[in-house]
TrEMBL record:
Residues 390-427 are annotated as: Disordered. This is Stage II sporulation protein P. The keyword Cytoplasm does not apply. It comes from the Bacteria. Residues 391-427 have a biased composition (Basic and acidic residues). Keywords: Membrane, Transmembrane, Transmembrane helix. The chain crosses the membrane at residues 342-362.
Length: 427
């Protein structure tokens, strides 16, 4: 086998392998979270363990957040007051965060939603797409009401989910509530619940909510009196390890802004954590924490019901849409944060694959550069230089009319050649 044929076969093989990998990744993303480099270095997403508490402090040592999840460098917090923090160090169960200033997006959304009227009556839905709801940790419960922080397969979190479902339905929203349990509460719970999330995706949802409770010990951390009710505040969690992270975060900011304009401050904060949480499936996927295990279940139910009041308007399902309003996050014509970044990755991977194919087919780096230089030289020359019609060589045409050797005359061929020569002269 010649060297040229070998390189062609290698090039075609590499191309087929690349196509196979792309197809495999497209299928696997439905059953496995999006892969990232940090997957090899981070621990599993086993959060919401009752009594496991991480405390986040600012540069002055003030507590700005507590959570029953592993906090890592790079995690970010957006408070109800629009303050933005980023974790810069972790020592044991204490994390230290730097204040980055007031978040511009939240300030803009707060300004807009503060002037937006509250829907006074139940309105007709402008879309029939459902809101999907499920529970990754189906054992999570509330000690004062349920008697335990964990009841496998039938935790009190289901009643909190029903409070969200009922409030959305009363607003005219179609809801797809999947009560599939995903016990035990271990490192693989999010892998098991991904099957449920994918099942919900088959119904073309407009958003998906994974409803949890936190696991910190202090009930007063979430307890508030809001809109004439004793409630447990909610927290919105966005996973940093997925390509839709910026879109998920934008949705969370809008939801927190409008919910707090209706019932301030029913959303305590937005927490971006090192995880996926199956949010790579769609840009409007969020994890909601309704209070903690030491709150009563009634407090959590009332808190998440107040949050539900904001969902239809933010998603563009129901509610007012006056002139000058920002487009709903689900509007296909609205800009989606992160889209250009994703496009950049696609272009970069395409160029990388093309470069590898060129290098293999050329056989050496110098030959690859030469071919690339010749290609662009021809293309740019033909693009910038005027294209001239190439005339056949007159001498060559005249030679065609010469009389062939005796015994080999073809009258038709000679006549055709003379006609061709005459046309050239006329040109």
């Amino acid at each position: 086998m010649t060297g040229a044929k070998s390189r062609i076969i290698w090039g075609i093989g590499l191309l087929l392998v690349g196509i196979s990998l792309l197809l495999g990744l497209s299928v696997s993303r439905l059953t496995r979270p999006v892969w990232s480099v940090t997957t090899f270095f981070k621990e599993a997403e086993n959060d919401h363990q009752a009594g496991v508490v991480y405390t986040v402090k600012d540069e002055q040592g003030r507590v700005i957040s507590q959570a029953s999840r592993r906090v890592t460098v790079g995690d970010e917090i957006f408070t109800a007051e629009s303050r933005h923090y980023r974790v810069t160090g972790v020592k044991g169960n204490t994390a230290y965060a730097r204040y980055l200033g007031m978040d511009r997006d939240l300030l803009a959304y707060n300004e807009y939603y503060s002037h937006l009227g509250v829907p006074a009556v139940r309105m007709m839905a402008r879309s029939t797409r459902p809101v999907g709801i499920y529970h990754t940790h189906s054992d999570e419960s509330y000690v004062p009401t349920d008697g335990s922080e964990s009841i496998p397969f039938k935790g009190g979190i289901y009643q909190v989910g029903e409070a969200l479902v009922n409030r959305l339905k009363n607003s005219g929203v179609r809801v797809d509530y999947d009560r599939t349990p995903h016990d035990p509460h271990d490192d693989n719970a999010y892998y098991r619940s991904r099957r449920t999330a994918v099942k919900l995706m088959q119904n073309n949802p407009i958003a998906i909510f994974d409803v949890h409770r936190d696991g910190i010990s202090d009930p007063s951390y979430y307890q508030r009196y809001i809109s004439n009710e004793d409630v447990a505040q909610t927290r919105l969690v966005v996973g940093r390890e997925n390509p839709r992270m910026q879109a998920n975060l934008d949705f969370a900011k809008r939801l927190m802004s409008y919910a707090n304009s209706l019932h301030k401050p029913v959303v305590k904060e937005i927490f971006t954590a090192q995880g996926n949480y199956n949010q790579d499936l769609m840009p409007t996927a969020l994890l909601i924490e309704a209070g903690t295990h030491t709150n009563t279940k009634g407090e959590a139910e009332r808190g998440i019901a107040l949050l539900a009041d904001a969902v239809p308007v933010v998603l563009g399902l129901t509610g007012p849409a006056p002139g000058g309003a920002p487009k709903p996050v689900t509007d296909r014509t609205a800009g989606t944060p992160g889209s250009w970044k994703a496009l950049g990755w696609i272009i970069a991977l395409t160029l990388l694959g093309g470069g590898a194919f060129l290098l293999i087919s050329a056989g050496s780096w110098d030959r690859a550069k030469s071919r690339l230089s010749d290609f662009f030289g021809r293309e740019f020359a033909s693009f910038f230089a005027p294209r001239r019609a190439r005339k056949p060589d007159l001498d060559t045409a005249e030679k065609a009319t010469e009389t062939p050797a005796e015994g080999h005359r073809d009258p038709d061929a000679g006549e055709a050649a003379r006609d061709h020569l005459e046309r050239i002269r006329q040109d």
